Hints:
The protein has 85 residues and is an alpha+beta fold. It has helices spanning 45-50, 54-60, and strands at 13-16, 21-24, 27-31, 36-41, 62-64, 68-71, 74-77.
Amino acid sequence: MADIRLSELYGKEIITNSGKKIGKVEDLILNLEERKVANLLLINADELIRSERTAYLLAKNSVKYERVRNIDQTIIVAEDPVSRR
């Protein structure tokens, strides 16, 4: 996949390769040690930080970046075999 600026990910629609709309990128989780994006968040990271249910919200409102297959006008991701999200 070609290099892309982080700022270009914000607001992009995330769609599965079967056409299911997941949501829009509101924020990102970065893996600074590996210098890569870890997760695309469907909610603002501040909501996660302030919540008592952080793990639940993270699981429900994020997409692992490793699922990304293509980035153009939208972000196409592989189906999640666990949650079908």
